[in-house]
Design goal:
heterodimer; A: alpha/beta; Rossmann fold; nine-stranded mixed β-sheet; 6 helices; 15 strands; about 25% helix; about 30% strand; globular; B: alpha/beta; 2 domains; five-stranded parallel β-sheet; 7 helices; 16 strands; elongated
């Protein structure tokens, strides 16, 4: 069994701030492996313990090589990181195109696992786009997985319905955070991963035409970003709990929401 | 643009979808996905109405195939999908088969100088991005639907494509739902400030006293696993807008704020005066929830008694 895991290098969105002039300060935020992808890495690592080969694929800036080491520490054979100046503008469609090229070059794979969303863009598009480009089945949002000989059984929640579906391999499955509990990765474990396990490739090495990845040639382009602002009262109550509680209850009654 | 197709499940009012599509297209057609012999839904203000019947087990790939064929034969430049799970799963498949740009969870659409521009949230909701569409076609999802339907409205039938047979549904069961956050008038929600599972009882009592539904932040479901995901408020849980949202011991990660910031009145209780939750609160209580919540229960009880 050969497994490809998609793992994204993302900024920690809880640390993203806007400058006083309204500029988004993403570069200053600490970075990490996308939390949802950790569950895909954990699942693949467990399958590797019963003999599967696991390759990690990613699209990211040069700093992502460090993040790939962390992803490898879950237990994978190697990582392929596609990079270049084009990454800054790459939309989900472009990323899926590049990941499909990696999957073809490194493949064939029986199973592709990925987190259901990435914390930065929340597009929830790349796994499905990749499946469509590879021409394989795609099942979204696994809460449990059972990989058999030629098929995979996926348990998932669709609204308030729990469903079990089966698709033939190869398949692309996106996973939720309910799938498993990822192991804790120590700094030491990350340091022990040799950088030689991370292969960095550019578009030409993947047989892709760089012109198709120029900002104007992409399917979408982010043309403007602005902060979301709150227009709330922000009235602060401080003091003795009993007094604040009484004041709060009175205010809520006055507002007619009790 | 000339034509947009709005696609929604029957039983949902597609009015908001049609209105949004109307902003950017001169003609708007509504394609209703219905169960065989089931409800048809309403299509206020659409120029034409079509219905395709798909079984309850219909797979996203089958939905993508029928919508793709419809959009292709009608020459639609925009396909606007309701944000229900089956549409979200079908969206990437549909965009690849149409060679279209894909945008999920658009909050707005506009016609720019160079074509369609979609607005959507970025970085967990801390920013809004304008996304310029650089393809002749786009497939976009938008949160609409959920209002009672008119089952009598006329619609032209559309033949479904042959089932792909890609997936086999082995079982389906409706889970007993504990929380009904959607549509709740009052919600008491808690986060990591509550230190143990036993201490949840205090929050449950407060919810009861306020006749409120019980909500929580993501870590309570995904990391602590104290409650099921039907209690989770936020981007990956339920988006709510009650009259009163009382957040207890929730620091206010952006992904939570996105799910509740449209509430009418927001009250936050947190011991950290710098907690981001206070930025979206109408009333902030700086204090230890282990003291504030019992006091609040007393204050509410005293008034009731």
């Amino acid at each position: 069994m050969r497994i490809l895991v998609l793992a994204k290098h993302v900024p920690d969105t809880t640390e993203i701030r806007f400058s006083p002039t309204g500029e988004l300060m993403v570069r200053q935020a600490p970075t990490k492996v996308n939390d949802y992808d950790r569950h895909a890495l954990e699942e693949a690592s467990r399958l590797r313990e019963s003999g599967a080969e696991v390759v990690i694929a990613s699209v990211g800036p040069p700093e992502a090589a460090k993040t790939m080491k962390e992803a490898l520490a879950y237990g994978a054979d190697r990582a392929v990181l596609a990079g270049g100046a084009w990454v800054a503008d790459a939309d989900p469609e472009a990323m899926a195109e590049v990941l499909a090229a990696i999957a073809r070059r490194e493949g064939p794979f029986d199973l592709v696992l990925a987190g259901d969303v990435s914390e930065d863009g929340y597009n929830a598009l790349v796994p499905g786009l990749l499946a469509a480009k590879l021409g394989t089945p795609y099942v979204r949002g696994a809460t449990a997985l059972g990989v058999g000989g030629a098929s995979v059984k996926v348990t998932r929640l669709v609204g308030d319905v729990e469903e079990e579906v089966e698709v033939a391999l190869p398949a692309v499955i996106s996973v939720t955070r309910l799938l498993n509990s990822p192991r804790v990765i120590s700094t030491m474990a990350v340091m022990k991963v040799p950088m030689s396990k991370v292969e960095t490739v550019d578009l030409a090495e993947l047989g892709l035409d760089p012109a198709a990845f120029a900002p104007g040639a992409l399917s979408t382009r982010v043309s403007a970003v602005r902060p979301v602002q709150s227009k709330r009262g922000n009235e602060m109550l401080r003091g003795e709990p009993a007094e604040i509680a009484a004041e709060l209850a009175a205010k809520l009654r006055g507002m007619g929401v009790l | 643009m000339d034509l947009a197709v709005v696609v929604s499940e029957a039983g949902a009012d597609a009015g908001a979808g049609v209105t949004l599509a109307r902003k950017v297209a001169s003609r708007v057609e509504h394609l209703v996905i219905a169960l065989p012999g089931g409800e048809r839904g309403a299509s206020p203000a659409a120029d034409a109405r079509y219905v395709v019947e798909l079984g309850e087990d219909a797979a996203p790939e089958d939905l993508a195939a029928v919508v793709s064929a419809f959009a292709e034969s009608h020459g639609a430049q925009l396909v606007l999908l309701a944000a229900q799970p089956i549409f979200r799963e079908a969206l990437p498949l549909l965009s690849v088969s149409l060679g279209a740009a894909a945008v999920t969870d658009a909050t707005d659409l506009a016609s720019g100088a160079d074509g369609l521009v979609a607005t959507r949230m970025l970085y967990g909701g801390s920013a809004l991005a304008e996304v310029a569409i650089q393809r002749p076609r786009a497939v976009v999802s938008h949160a609409f639907g959920g209002v009672p339907a008119d089952s009598t409205a006329e619609a032209e039938p559309v033949e479904p494509t042959a089932p792909s047979g890609v997936r086999k549904v082995l079982s389906r069961r409706r889970l007993p739902s504990e929380a009904s956050l959607k549509g709740a008038r009052r919600i008491v929600s808690f986060g990591r400030g509550v230190r143990s599972k036993e201490d949840m009882a205090m929050i449950t009592s407060l919810a009861k006293a306020l006749d409120a539904e019980l909500g929580c932040s993501r870590p309570i479901v995904e990391d602590m696993r104290w409650l099921g995901s039907d209690h989770q408020v936020g981007l990956t849980g339920t988006t709510v807008a009650p009259d009163l949202y009382l957040a207890v011991g929730i620091s206010g990660q952006i992904q939570h704020l996105v799910g509740m910031r449209d509430s009418k009145v927001i009250v936050a209780v947190n011991n950290n005066p710098a907690a981001p939750i206070f930025e979206v609160a109408d009333i902030g209580v700086v204090g230890d929830l282990y003291q504030v919540v019992p006091s609040l229960l007393e204050a509410l009880g005293a008034a009731a008694g």
